[in-house]
Structures are given as C-alpha cells and as structure tokens.
What we know:
Elements: H1 2-15, E1 19-25, H2 32-55, E2 59-66, E3 73-75, E4 80-83, H3 92-102, H4 109-117, H5 123-131, E5 138-140, E6 143-145, H6 157-172
Parallel strand pairs: 1-2, 2-4
Antiparallel strand pairs: 3-4, 5-6
Amino acid sequence: MRFSILAAALTYASTASAAISWSLQRASAPTADQNEAYGRIESAMRLAVARYGRYTDASKTIRVYYAPGVPTAEASYNGDLRFGSDRAYMTERTAMHEIAHTLGVGQTAAFDRKCAANDWRTATPLLQSWDGAAARINCGGGHFWPYGLNYESEWSETNANRHVMLVDAMLADGM
C-alpha cells in the first residue's frame, strides 16, 4: 500500500509544470536596506516558485514588493505579495505560504465554502494518504492546516512538498 501511494505521488509530481511567474517591484534608487531585502526576497521567491513548479501546474502572475510597514508578509488573490522588513520572514516557507494566498487560500468565497463544508474531494484523500484515514483539512483565519506552512516550526522538505500538492488538490476541488 505504501509503495502504491509513493508511486502515485511521484507520478503526480513528475507530470506537473508550473506557470507561476513573479516580478519584484524595485525602487529606482534603492537604499542599502532595500538592496539587502531584495536579495533575500528574490532567493525566497526563486526557491518557492521552483518548488511549486515541481508539484503543480497552477498559473498566477505575482507582483512582489518590499513593504517595511508590513509586520511579516501578506498576499492577496489579485497577485500582490508583500514582505515586511523582518528578515526572519524572507524565507522559502513564507513565500510558499503567501503564494498559496495568491492562489485562493483564505482569499476566495470558494475556499471559505469548501472549508465550512469540509468539501475537499481531492485534497482530503491526498491528506489521508499521508496522515491516515482520520486526517482532515482544518481551516481558520484564512489559513489551513496541516501543511499550511503557517509557522516556521512547520518547515521541512516533506511538509513543503506536501503543502504544494495539497494546494494543487484544493485548486482541483474548485478553491
């Protein structure tokens, strides 16, 4: 059984190709702080988009900003993604979490309806293949768990891959 789940996951992963594109909006005469932030943000976004590219064919154009007034990071369904000045959030994990918001997590009525009804016909079985028959997708405050990458403590390579696969399944479910 475990082998068949692994084989299915590998097949699923190898057939996906992403169409997520992004651009970092830069100041015309950046300060030293901005230049350092841009470097960290670019690294985080490159890693996050590459990982999304391995596990989903989701399509989105994302405009990324350095916005020091933002406490952590934030994103919206319209494709805007903003990193604040706290360097601890300029990570692949944060970028992946925020990309999920641009794809609809916590940002659409469909996400809210699916969460309220626990109506994830593709995503729930995928989650259960990893975490057991009793596993369910929990939602609250515009987020989901497990695998929502809501906190740095949730980071692992496995969790990152599962995050993208679960978001992709949520999209297939009509998020």
